[in-house]
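Input record (Table S2, row 69):
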Amino acid sequence: MAENKCAECHIRKVGGNGSAIYKPAGRINTLGFLRGMVEQCNTELNLGLFPDEVTSIAAVLNRDYYRLK
Ligand code: HEC
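Output record (heme C complex):
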């Protein structure tokens, strides 16, 4: 799944399994913002994800880490 590509780079930055990069109490406080952040990583890094993939990754991250409404 695309999330592995993401983790690889996050691990280099925060160690562990990379999930420490996701900070629920950080600056991301709306679902739209979270999706925007995923979109930004996607565009800047040329990951080539389709819009619906960006949306579903954001949804998974929200379910597992952020729990925003
Ligand atoms: C080449 C490296 C790299 C890749 C690949 C990458 N990211 Fe990131 N990502 C970062 C860095 C660095 C940060 C931290 C930015 C900061 O803290 O200012 C970050 C931060 C984030 C955040 C915000 C975390 C928070 O709560 O503040 C999200 C969400 C995120 N990335 C999602 C993704 C997703 C989804 C992918 C894959 C589709 C991905 N990233 C791929 C480097 C990467």
